[in-house]
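QA checklist item 7 of 12: single-chain prediction sanity check.
[x] sequence parsed
[x] length recorded as 155
[x] structure emitted
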Amino acid sequence: MMKHPEQFFGWAGPGLRLAAMHLLTKPFSPDRAHWREQHGGQLASNAPTVTNCEGMNRPDSTPDRAWISGLRDKYSRDGTTVLIDSTPMPTCDPKFAYFQTNLSALVDNGIQSMPLDSFTQDGRLHVNAAGSLLLSNMVANQISQRMSALTPGVR
């Protein structure tokens, strides 16, 4: 600790914060723990499913090419493959076309869509159980395709 105080406190700070947060949280109820076990680690959201795209207005924001490139540079080390994805959106989202035009070339999954009933009303593009399954399969397929491209003959 005395030789490298910056590293020590850089590590200890987040650990202490997590410990303090743990003191203030309650463990999952047996019902919630069982749900999570039965659904591959997913926790159910009690929020209702989105039924229309009204109210999805967000301010314009230009995708930051330098930031995305910086992520690739920072994490592409020792043969690590970095995948940078965008969150899938319903096609009725008012910003869907904007992001297809301005972000598709910067991310690895393009701008994908998912059915409107895959999302909940509890926050921007949070997925429900059905959406979680779709999203998990999208990511798994993307990784599988990338691995196949890197090592031909492997499926």
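[x] summary fact logged: The chain has a mean pLDDT of 82.
[ ] second reviewer sign-off
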